[in-house]
Amino acid sequence: MESQGNVLFRWRSYLPLIILIGGLAVYANTQFKIKAGIVDAMPFSFDLICLAIATFGLLIRIYTVGHTPKNTSGRNTAEGQVADEVNTTGIYSIVRHPLYVGNFFMWLGPAMYTADIWFTISFIMLYYVYYERIMYAEEQFLVGKFGDIYASWSKVTPAFIPSFKNWNTAQLGFSWKKIIKKEKNGLFAMFLVFFIFHASGEYIQGGTLSDKDFWLTGTMKFWTYGTVISGIIYFILKYIKKYTKVFDEEGR
């Protein structure tokens, strides 16, 4: 499991693409069934529920990353495992892998948006098998590097389902600068995924992509504005980060 986990760790950023492609195919099939009158269309409230679930996952990631020091809880895909210290306070006092908990909910939202119970169950099973190995490999690395410090903490802290009985306030304060540096793409990516799904559904139902009313009518208007606004924010922050040091913080 450790060797499998190390391989999957390096490729973990591509799991969302698998979910996106598979989910889009299932979502399209659902839309064809709606068009044929086989099933009923889901109300807009269902869209908002799925978005809320994904947003909940993003908020977990934001809270986690905002309280962590440099070289922990990172996106170090290319170089493999990196950790300068063990995070044991804040959200890490109630769960060992909060970022993966956040990821789960961020992708559970789009999986549910397909309105296919079997795809949603398949996603949950795939996520479990995939990240179980990644978490195992990470923990072997951390045990090897930090020894009893990590082992003692992991014995009383659950891996994935939080337990609040050992809550300990975060050692570091919350840093919006670090969030902007590390998580600025999250909101845009989330809206973009739902936008792609919904646009494909509207097209299947008979919409015309060249018609501006396709993008700015009904529920499509919500996803269009959300994607455009979050995209503009993302590219502005990306530009500021690239050409200035306004978001730099020592030790963060």
Task: Name the descriptors.
single chain; 10 helices; Four Helix Bundle (Hemerythrin (Met), subunit A); mainly alpha; globular; 252 residues
How would you sum up this structure, described in words?
There is one protein chain. The chain is built from ten helices and no strands. The protein is globular and about 60 Å long. Helix 3 packs antiparallel against helix 4. It has helices spanning 2-10, 15-35, 44-66, 98-113, 117-146, 148-156, 176-183, 186-204, 212-215, 219-243. By secondary structure, the protein is an all-alpha fold. The mean pLDDT is 89. Helix content is 65%, strand content 0%. It has a domain at 2-174: Four Helix Bundle (Hemerythrin (Met), subunit A), CATH 1.20.120.1630.
- Roughly how many Å apart are the termini? 32 Å
Helix content: 55-70%
Residue windows where pLDDT falls under 50 for at least 5 positions: none
Radius of gyration: 20 Å
Kindly name the structural category: mainly alpha
Q: Main beta sheet: strand number and arrangement?
A: none
- Give me the count of strands: 0
Q: Secondary structure elements and their pairing?
A:
Blueprint: H1 2-10, H2 15-35, H3 44-66, H4 98-113, H5 117-146, H6 148-156, H7 176-183, H8 186-204, H9 212-215, H10 219-243
Helix pairs in contact: 1-5, 2-4, 2-8, 3-4, 3-7, 3-8, 4-5, 5-6, 8-10
Short structural summary:
The chain has helices at 2-10, 15-35, 44-66, 98-113, 117-146, 148-156, 176-183, 186-204, 212-215, 219-243. The chain is mostly helical.
